[in-house]
Design brief:
Length: about 300
């Protein structure tokens, strides 16, 4: 079972008040149903969502609903749940702000006054058009796929009204509203009330962030080690030149001491070399001091080469 399916199942177990049920059903029927004069026809791949819609419609409108289960065998065998409503059609559609005076009307934000109503409408949209990637197998991605651009723009606007930023992208003949920020997706899961899914998502997110941090630190350490090794090799080349040309005695006593310690510890960093010299000789020196002495060595080599 996918993470998306598990999350939808968890969402359908939440208890809602009458207003939230209406808002959720409004989105579900608007974006999933085939509507005619005497029929509302709904299909679901998720049994939990089908049960939720069946239960809410019966309780809210006191109607009879025909439910059919079919096996679909296209790419893989799966069950499809079909709900057929043949009574109180106009009353249901007008109650859910889908039709007015027997004509389909555009959904408007003013129909959803409270924060809970907006979240319920977005949640209903997610149940029938949405999906979310399993954070353990891929990047962070939550999306709603809608047929009409105006519907996608409306969902984007509704998300923004509850401080959830999203983007709209055309995908073949449909429109996708998507979120890729892990933090924003986490807020969305929390708003949907899917607490177990939230814990799973956050556990994976923390693990991945920690792993990425460790990788960055390792890469930084490797880069620093490579830099230290390269610097050490350059120093040894300078020292070798100064020895071959008999130029060591032209250096100050402390610079000569640093030179000798570099020969003893060719792979040490500036900081490590400074600590060793300070500890063994009592000469307090830091990284910048070490660098200063090597600059003197390099300048002596360069001045000799230019003669």
């Amino acid at each position: 079972m996918s993470f998306s399916t598990r999350m939808k199942e968890e969402i359908t177990k939440n208890n809602l008040n009458r207003i939230e049920i209406q808002s959720e059903l409004s989105a579900i029927i608007r974006y999933d149903a085939k509507i005619s004069k005497d029929l509302i026809f709904l299909t679901f791949e998720n049994a939990s969502v089908a049960r939720r819609v069946y239960k809410d419609l019966k309780e809210l409108f006191n109607i009879s609903i025909k439910i059919t289960v079919r096996n679909q065998k296209k790419l893989r065998s799966k069950q499809i749940y079909i709900l057929e409503i043949k009574e109180k059609i106009n009353y249901i559609l007008e109650s859910l702000s889908i039709h007015k005076n027997n004509k389909k009307c555009e959904m408007k934000e003013e129909y959803l006054d409270a924060f809970e109503e907006k979240v319920a409408y977005i949640r209903g949209t997610f149940l029938v058009t949405g999906s979310i990637n399993d954070p353990s197998t891929s990047g962070y991605h939550l999306e709603f796929v809608l047929e009409m651009k105006k519907d996608a723009v409306f969902i984007q606007k509704l998300l923004k009204s509850i401080r959830i930023e999203s983007k709209v992208l055309k995908r073949v003949n449909r429109y996708m509203v998507y979120i890729k920020s892990a933090e924003v997706i986490s807020d969305m899961i929390r708003a949907f009330g899917a607490i177990n899914s939230l814990f799973y998502f956050e556990d994976i997110r923390i693990y991945r962030d920690h792993k990425n941090m460790v990788n960055r630190l390792n890469n930084c350490e490797i880069a620093n080690q490579e830099k230290t090794t390269t610097t050490g090799i350059k120093h040894l080349e300078i020292i070798q030149y100064l020895k071959e040309k008999d130029l060591i005695d032209l250096l100050e006593e402390k610079t000569q001491m640093v030179l000798e310690y570099r020969l003893k510890y060719p792979e040490s960093s500036y900081q490590e070399l400074a600590e060793i010299i300070s500890l063994e000789t009592g000469y307090k020196i830091g990284k910048s001091g070490i660098n200063h002495h090597f600059i003197k060595m390099r300048k002596l080599m360069e001045s000799h080469q230019q003669r």
